[in-house]
Amino acid sequence: MTTPHLDPELAHLADLDVGFGGDSIDLDKIRAALRELIEPPPPLAGVLAQRLIIRDEPQLAVETFSPAREGPHPCLIWFHGGGFMIGSAAMEAPRLQEWVARFQCVTVSVEYRLAPENPFPAAHDDAVRALHWVIEQAGQLGIDPHRIVVGGASAGGGLAAAVALTARDSDIDLAGQLLFYPMLDDRQETPSSKWDAAVWSPGANEFAWRAYLGDHYGGSVPIYAAPSRATDLGGLPPTLLLVGGADGFFDEDVEYATRLTRAGVPTGIRVYAGAPHGFDLMAPGAQATLTARRDAEAWLEDRFTTRSVP
Fold first, then answer.
1. What does the alpha-carbon distance between residue 16 and residue 9 come to, in Å, rounded to a whole number?
2. CA atoms within 13 A on the CB side of 37
């Protein structure tokens, strides 16, 4: 099994144990440990934070961060990572708040249902419902419905890609999709999917896909569960995809970006040499993280400022 080269600044991440490496995986323990690590920051000055229940049964909540001044503002709908099994809408509150302050946008972070208790299509249905809610409530939320971007990291990036496919097939026009090392392909047939990769191993990936797909695993998998299975990528919104060169998702992500480009979708891809999965969250001060942040922000600024009400 190939072990990819790691950026020396990120080499310590090879020793990180995310809890999915053994034969016995205790999801409750992993979730509890993650909850202890997540400490939602106080709202930044000029940023309004709210947690809203947008559906009662089954419950669906979102965390919104909004500028203090009146809109309409562009909007980023965000889906957190965690292999579809762990994590919460609060995971990336610091980054989302900073983007609200910088771009005067609204961010909506979605508390989608987690597998294996809620396998596909639960998370996808929650994600699509959140998109429809944002469109329906755009006026009250101070959002310009013509400037909605979907985005996410890891499993959340896969959800964002699936939502973009669903929006296209429902004639909903999005301004873009921002995909951080998205989890796109359940088949694990690429060379990089078999790497002995830091942070997120082939075993962890298989466990996560089995949990998320449930009865679909190993059978007929819908494109809204695993976007790499979509044969037609035409008509999708402008895309930026970011992935580390030492990430097990490297091949599937590069291939997806290449296919988007071939389908006529304006697509940018950024590869960070020697960076493993989740590098930006676990090494916030590393040069690769700072570069990735600049790349994402430059792209967001372009989508938010060049896309306006017709």
1. 14
2. 14
Cα dihedral 209→284→80→178 (10° resolution): -90
Tokens, residue 44: 């930044």
Is 247 catalytic? The answer is: yes
| pLDDT tens column, 212-260 | 999 999 899 999 999 999 999 999 999 999 999 999 999 999 999 999 9
Is 239 strand, coil or helix? Answer: strand
Contact 13, 282 (CB under 8 A): yes
What is the distance, to the nearest Å, from the Cα of residue 298 to the centroid of all Cα atoms in its chain?
Answer: 18
Catalytic residue chosen out of the listed positions 66, 88, 109, 154: 154
154 is catalytic: yes
pLDDT tens profile 112-126: 999 999 999 999 999
> DSSP labels for 48-107?
EEEEEEEETTTTEEEEEEEESS---EEEEEEE--STTTS--TTTTHHHHHHHHHHH--EE
Q: Calculate the CA 30 to chain-centre distance.
A: 20
How does DSSP classify residue 238?
Answer: P
Catalytic residue among 7, 247, 251, 253: 247
Strand pairing partners for 52?
Answer: 62
% the chain with pLDDT above 70: 96
